[in-house]
Amino acid sequence: MKQKNIQKARKKYLQAKELRPEERLIIEKDLQGKDFLYYQSLDNSPLLLGDKYSARATYKKIEPSIRQYSVLGTKRILRYASSIAAIIALVIISALAYQAHGDSQLLLITTTYGERKQVKLPDGSIVILNSLSSMSYKKKMNGKKREVLLEGEAYFDIAKDPQKPFVVKINELSIKVLGTKFNVEAYENENYLTTSLFEGYVSINGDNGDTCKLKPGEKGIYQKDKKTLEIVSDESIENEMLWKSGSLNFNNKPLSEIFKVLEREKNIHFIVNDSIGKISVTARFIHNETIDEMLDILGQSLGFEVSKQGNEYSISVNNE
After folding, report:
1. Do the beta carbons of residue 90 and residue 30 sit within 8 Å?
2. Helix (H) or strand (E) segment spanning residue 280
């Protein structure tokens, strides 16, 4: 892709404008660690970022602290360190861009493995981000609508403002509300985007033209591969927000989905065969159990064995 197209995508990202699929790929690569070295400012003058703000330079600064935790294992440290360095560099760059361009620039909030973070937006709304999630928004929501961009999972308690709808934008969906409480789960590596409504009303709109309106106690589930949007009633919908307090709740979930949640929580990786991954489980962990304690409980109940090498866990059927 031509350099001017790359810079155009980065400029649109900083201006909180909607990105085309190919532009999203550029930003995703940046977020994965590529250094932002140049942006075009709003007044068409260049914003140059020196080498001291690159991910490599940031890593050098935090390397001494990282070495204190070498007991975690070399591979895990390098992956974690490079991610943190990239995030720190991105935050620095976002701050510089905002100073250069004013209130129209985005603020970026991120969480790492097992982290929860509460954010108060400029309009007074409260957002709680779950692990490995990110949200961006304008410092001043002074337009005709209030808008945030989300990847991952978040709980929203939206301040009421009938004159300014609140919109959560995800890659393939937009969720529009006036004042309500709801949860959105939209991880990039998951096939489903799920909106759970606890209070008020929300409208969900897909890029394909599908739309639905939720009432309290309902979920809107969008299936990425089939591009379908459906409404499901859930009597136990309150369980969808238990993660805010650190509780992990699984209601008739396949083990494959449970293991994905544990990977995000504990910074580990599972190797699981398909037959085990399809087993559905109902379980709740509320006492900050270690990953070994969780797997011991699940293994004894379901009859599988666990072998561990570093932060990689292999799951196999007993006597297999």
Report:
1. yes
2. strand 280-285
**What distance in Å separates the CA atoms of residue 23 and residue 267, rounded to the nearest whole number?**
29
Sign of CA dihedral 157, 159, 121, 138: positive
Both structure tokens of 103: 């209130």
**Domains of the chain (ranges plus CATH)?**
1-102 (no CATH), 106-240 (2.60.120.1440), 247-317 (3.55.50.30)
Q: How far apart, in whole angstroms, are the C-alpha atoms of residue 175 and residue 206?
A: 9
Give me 317's structure tokens: 């059927």
**DSSP character string of 43-110:** TS-EEE--GGGSHHHHHHHHHHHHHTTGGG-HHHHHHHHHHHHHHHHHHHHHHHHHHHH-TTSEEEEE
Which amino acid is present at 52? K
Q: How many residues does the chain have?
A: 320
What Å distances lie between residue 171 and 21, 76, 94, 189, 247, CA to CA?
Answer: 9, 29, 21, 12, 28
Residue type, 263: E
For residue 20, give Cα distances in angstroms to 13, 23, 171, 188.
11, 5, 10, 16
Q: What is the pLDDT along the chain (320 residues), one digit of tens a residue?
A: 556 677 777 777 666 567 777 877 777 766 654 444 333 333 443 333 444 444 444 444 444 544 444 444 444 444 444 444 545 445 454 444 444 444 567 799 999 999 999 999 999 999 999 999 999 999 888 888 999 999 999 999 999 998 899 999 998 899 999 889 999 999 988 999 999 999 999 999 988 788 899 999 999 999 999 989 999 998 889 889 989 988 898 888 899 999 999 999 999 999 998 888 899 999 888 877 899 999 998 998 888 999 999 999 999 887 65
